[in-house]
Amino acid sequence: MVKLGIVLLALILIACDPGMYQMLHRTIEDPRVVTPLVRSFIESNTIFISWGHDEGTDEFILERARDNPFLHFEIIYRGTSLSFVDRGVESNARYIYRLSKRRGRKIFGPSPGAFGVSSVVVSDGYRNSTMAQAVRLESMDRIGNIYFFRSHCGLEISDTDWFYIDIPAQRQAIITVFDFESPPGSTRSHFRYYVYTRRENPVVHDSHFYIENNGLATRRFFFKLFPARQEFVPAGTPGGNIVQYRVRLLGIVP
Fold this sequence. Notes:
10% of the residues lie in helices and 46% in strands.
């Protein structure tokens, strides 16, 4: 009878207090410490940070540090939201973010750091960072930009731009890339290119390369432009840049 009375009392309390129901059905597992997702170059001088839902978490704690050899973190957000838009950054600066989670009085974390960069310049609007998002390269020029940055602790973020061309049988496409930051008189560029299933090569500034279709039918070819890392920043050192380019289809010839 005593046990039955306790059960009935618990049911009455749950019916009267939805919070009690949630507490009794809450997971008993500790929060999982995960690295937040950081996105840069979407808006000028703005960095977007997000993380996933965790049923065992009462509060998320986001910290930020300026990228330096010795990191000094400060809390920039506490709450239950799953994202934070950081507009309190300096222009052209690098930052490290980490996430902790609170359950009751106990703190779990912090997570490993995630790297973000603030910049006046934003990424081009093509949104073609994967082969599935490739942009068709036609007779008109495509002007875009590519970035590469490295932190003091070796974290890296970089950009890739994919394009495609439909090439008739037994023809070849002629493509040229102009690097807006190549030194005068130099053929060096900040980029490399890769034709899908073929070998990658350096981009020669304001010169051209070929994509051949040796088949007997029209075929779609995909290629990407991506950073030549050593042209953005020397190996093993922090820094980086965002560099504008122009890619042009000069023609399709025998």
